[in-house]
Amino acid sequence: MKRTERIIALTEILLSHPNELLTLGFFAERFQTAKSTISEDLAAIKESLCIARKGYLETIPGAAGGIKYTPEIGREEAQKFLDSLAQTLSASDRILPGGFLYMADILYDPHISKKLGLLFASIFRKRNPEAVVTIETKGIPLALMTADALGVPAVVVGHGNKVTEGSSVSINYISGSSERIQTMSLTRKALRTGKRVLVIDDFIKAGGTAKGIMSLMQEFDAQVVGLGILMEDAVWHTSRLVNDYHALLQLEIDTATGNTSVRANRL
After folding, report:
1. Are residues 47 and 15 in the same domain?
2. Residues 8 and 105 reside in one and the same domain
3. Each residue of 176-207: pLDDT tens digit?
4. Per-residue pLDDT at 258
5. Which of 89, 158, 199, 257 could disulfide-link to 262, CB 3.0 to 4.6 Å?
6. What pLDDT, in 10s, does the model give residues 50-84?
């Protein structure tokens, strides 16, 4: 295999195994070449990733060390992506009765949700979350992609108990926008106690659901290290039940005219 071909193959392996520690011996055996040659190839890949702002390679020394690829997205690319997404979501035909915005096609598009997951991971990586928590159902794609980019498991909070999941912890919470009492639950097997968790959700109005998730995390002695939101409702900004969060987009709906304005927050 020529060096160019080997570098392409090495890059493909790294990109398909994010946050996974891979040894030089693994690559040397895979490509039947010396570790020193692999090291030179990895140095070239590291420089290319840095220039393209697609993440970075970390070298872990020692007998149990190796190479780990951490995916990221560049700030300029991320801002352009969010601006484009805001323009797409501003279409008037996305307004639903009751002042809701249709986003399901966006959330369940793997290409879009993957970039959003990279964005959340880039924002919260330094807080070292050990799990990504969301509530069913629309937040699941975002949480899953964020967890993949961070290399940690995703945990989904449900709206009710399921006998197939064993014993669970349930709490009642008040939805801030509708002021109705609702229930959320999480099986004990889904999250071990004492974890550092990142909460991800698709939308926030008054913040009742987000506050409910945080209260549920207390039952697991979990430390919430961050709250990431895809879109915030600008109307509820001054009366929100949670304040410490990072929203990527902001929504303004004029219920009288039906005009919708979605804009990207600055990163």
Report:
1. yes
2. no
3. 666 788 899 999 999 999 999 999 999 998 89
4. 64
5. 89
6. 999 999 999 988 777 899 999 999 999 999 999 99
**In this structure, are strands 66-71 and 21-22 parallel, antiparallel, or unpaired?**
antiparallel
Looking at the structure of the chain, the number of domains it has is 2
Instruction: State whether 109 and 25 are in the same domain.
Output: no
The span from the CA of 253 to the CA of 255, in Å, is 6
What torsion, rounded to 10 degrees, do the Cα atoms 265, 235, 227, 77 define? -20
Residue 234 DSSP class: G
Domain of residue 14 covers 3-71
* pLDDT number for residue 170: 92
Q: Could you give the CA distance from residue 44 to residue 4 in angstroms, rounded to a whole number?
A: 11
The CATH number given to whatever domain includes residue 235 is: 3.40.50.2020
- Same domain? For 232 and 180 the reply is yes
**Whole-structure pTM over 0.85, yes or no?**
yes
The closest of 124, 129, 125 to 153, measured between CA atoms, is 129
Do 88 and 176 share a domain, yes or no?
yes
Same domain? 81 vs 129: yes
Neighbours of 206 (CB within 10 A): 20
Q: Which is it for strands 181-187 and 168-174: parallel, antiparallel or unpaired?
A: antiparallel
